[in-house]
Design goal:
The chain has seven helices and 14 strands. It is of the alpha/beta class and 243 residues long. The protein has a single domain, classed as Metallo-beta-lactamase, Chain A (4-Layer Sandwich).
């Protein structure tokens, strides 16, 4: 399977990077995990067809992780999308996306579409079939007005784990256990703040993680400035990882 980083940045464009969006291909159909506000731009820049994405998962309800959804839905509407769009995520997903659409494009959530838009709010710690994948969600420590999830994705005979945004929690050990790759936030290098991970804390817990590969993402300028001091793979926009 192939993991492509459409966007690897934080909420504020540090390093000129796009917001979070992971694109998985090689299974029965492609899917994405998270869809930040810049993700539609990123997909088109990469030559990928947004109307071809039928399954999309959102880890938590912050704009840099779900804010591209109103644009994706409207782009599909204007370009005569026909394939259903299935969006999974935490409880509160449908309401938050609907309200975001109304803020950005008043009336857009109530317009009739040629395609179905289905919101699937997933429970914690249950293996759930999700289109081409099986996903398991783990609640983590990140305030977003709704549960925030790390996710374990079984896809194309591989396992990918992704932390979402969170401070250190043992849920990350469970989510990434034995995974072929664990994509993990490392917002700061050694500054510890609530709700986010720093590289030094992650390094302290590295022996607890049994994943085969660790790939760091969602880096602030502070973390990018310390890239030469990091002993881990670092994501960047456009990076393609074969797993």
């Amino acid at each position: 399977m192939e993991l492509r980083f459409i966007g690897s940045g934080d909420a504020f464009g540090s390093g000129g990077r796009l917001q979070t969006c992971l694109y998985l291909s090689g299974g029965s159909e492609a899917m994405t995990v998270d869809f930040g506000a810049s993700s539609l731009v990123g997909m088109k820049r990469a030559g990928l067809e947004p109307n071809g994405i039928g399954w999309l998962f959102v880890t938590h309800l912050h704009g840099d992780h779900f804010g591209g959804l109103p644009f994706l839905v409207l782009d599909g509407q204007f370009r005569r999308r026909e394939q259903a769009l299935n969006i999974g995520g935490p409880p509160g997903l449908a309401d938050r996306v609907t309200r975001a659409m109304e803020v950005l494009f008043p009336g857009s959530s109530r317009v009739s579409r040629r395609f179905d838009t289905n919101f699937i709010e997933l429970p914690e710690r249950e293996r759930v079939e999700f289109g081409p994948a099986v996903v398991t969600c783990y609640e983590v420590q990140h305030a977003s007005g709704a549960p925030s999830f790390a996710i374990r994705v079984e896809y194309a005979d591989r396992v990918i784990a992704y932390s979402g945004d969170t401070e250190w929690t043992s849920a990350l050990v469970e989510a990434s256990a034995g995974a072929d790759a664990f994509v993990c936030e490392a917002y700061f290098f050694d500054k510890r703040v609530p709700y986010h991970l720093d590289y030094r804390t992650l390094e302290e817990h590295r022996s607890d993680l049994s994943c085969q590969r660790l790939i760091l993402t969602h880096m602030s300028q502070d973390m990018l400035d310390h890239a030469g001091d990091v002993e881990a793979e670092l994501a960047k926009d456009g990076l393609v990882v074969e797993i």
